[in-house]
């Protein structure tokens, strides 16, 4: 089947005013082939929304999964972020972290559920993120377990603060997470230091499993870039669909 079929999709752009963040937040919404408002759809919410669409090619990949792999059609919501404040919003030590969690769970989710026929159970909502986006997705589930229990993490930046918060949890048997990390990510420089993402993800996997979470985990040849994550995205999505 030619790629042109997959390109026939609808991507809607919306702006949402966030009381929590006191600013507008841009959303990109992918509506699958054959989209019909009388049906209901599972939904994937992506941190770094612009990058998931532009570099992750998630809309094209979704079309391929739906049309070629017979995956049930799903909606994708990309939540855009200003890279200048990304760490402040996504990292647990960031000064906009709590406000971002509130914006996501208490403003973006109701907005989408009011305007689109997405399913409203935690099992039909997936949170996806790369690096700190994977970390903040996990934090959203820990803060709002009645809303989120499925996480797709691409090379999650699970810093010590995040692991300490996981250690404080007693029972994570409600949580399902799909994790992938690149074996060449052992000395990755971020704005807060140099980190070994392989070690970080192994430790996080162990902490989650000790608390009963369902963890699907893989290590592959790859670096901390979208070229790696884009190749891994279909397998991660198929895990949930």
From TrEMBL:
Pfam families linked: Esterase
Domain of life, source organism: Bacteria
InterPro entries in UniProt: AB_hydrolase_fold (IPR029058), Esterase-like (IPR000801), Mycobacterial_A85_antigen (IPR050583)
Transmembrane segments: none
Protein name as annotated: Esterase family protein
Native source species: Paenibacillus agri
